Amino acid sequence: MARPILSRIAAVLVAAGMALPAWAALDIGDPVPKFTANAALAGKTFRYSLADALAKGPVVLYFFPAADSSDCSIEAHAFAEAVDQFAALGATVIGVSADDIDTLSKFSVKSCQNRFPVASDESKSVINGFDALMQTRPDFANRLSYVISPDGKVAYYYQNLNPDKHVERMLNAVRALPKAAASR
User: Fold this and answer.
1) Is the overall model pTM greater than 0.70, yes or no?
2) 40-52: per-residue pLDDT in tens?
3) Considering only Cβ atoms within 10 Å of each terminal Cβ, which end of the chain, N or C, has fewer?
């Protein structure tokens, strides 16, 4: 009698697991959703286009939970200090969060040090498109970084709430891109 009950429980658990959405980063080789978004650089707002950025070379796209939080400021500062290294490899950097554009305009000056843009995704359409929604706090993006090759595909990704390794891993991934892709 216990065996059929356990089988039913297992079947229900499997069915429930299959009904849940997958919450993982886009995989290497997956095409990324092209997007445009309001962004800020050095306190000035503009319309950012991923397709336009990819036409110039690889893009490091990183998602972060909230501007002006301690870890997000640490991460932005680290990306700001590494922008010249990314540029030397032909890559650009863009940060994305669910913060409003006014908050990000200030963040682009203070934490990003006027070195790279940050985009606002209040609707979370970009965040969801890149599987970057934080499961435990769905009002926020997860700390997730991607290297996107000029052909619009994921070359590398790294997800960790600790901001310490994102820049290093993204630099190594851009360095590992085929030379033709990195110099486009």
Assistant:
1) yes
2) 999 999 999 999 9
3) N
φ and ψ of 32, to 5 deg: -100, 150
Among 76, 87, 69, 88, CA closest to 40: 76
Q: Which tokens sit at 119?
A: 């985009």
Half-sphere exposure of 158 (CA within 13 A, CB side): 19
Residue corresponding to tokens 């590494």: 82
* Residue 81: both structure tokens together: 């200090």
Tracing tokens 């997730």 back to the chain, one arrives at 144
Residue 88 to residue 90: CA distance in whole angstroms: 5
Q: Which of 144, 152, 112, 117 is nearest to 128 (CA)?
A: 144
- Position of tokens 């030397």? 88
